[in-house]
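Re: How this chain folds, sequence and tokenised backbone to follow

Filed under: protein folding, tokenised backbone structure, sequence and structure records.

Contents: The amino acid chain and a row of whole-number tokens, matched residue for residue.

Body of memo: The sequence and its backbone structure tokens, given next.
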Amino acid sequence: FLLRGDHYLGSHNITARYYQNTGTSFNRTANSLPQFDATFNPRGRNAMLADTWVVDQRTTNELRLSYGRSSALFSPAEQPVTPRFLVAGLAGIGTVQFWPQGRIFNVYQIANVTSHVRGRHILKSGIDLRRIQDNSINDSGRRGIYNFASVDSFLAGVPSNYSQVFGNTYRGFRMDYHGAFLQDDWKITRT
């Protein structure tokens, strides 16, 4: 859904906006039995507050503050969560080794643009400051993966190899973005 409001306060136009979407889908995995699939739950949110200020007849300023968040998580569709058994020539058995995994992105932004008309020139300057947070989890292989070279080795309980991931798979990446610009739009001839 989307909510938006505008309000005029003298020479200021204040705009507020909030957007949100959610969803759920079922993710089928190739070479796997149906009960070992995953659910996918994407979510998005965005909030913005802007002030467009008419300073005088030739100058305007727009200040914008915003926050955006998007997340996507793949989770095992069925419980209990089990190790994964991969047998050559058969569909995989057990919870798919790729789940759970997901990301949550947060973006904080402050932007400001000033415009000034002077003769045949439209002068603009602005800044864009962003803080980006990428929070990731990837628990691939956390419950263990048994590999069997054949159906006979599977029936005998003799895997060709076993692997398992240990430790915390959460990663929190951070990045700051700083941008600035100066611009001159010049009309060569009068219109």
Remarks:
- Residues 82 and 95 are 5 Å apart (CA to CA).
- The chain is about 5% helix and 65% strand.
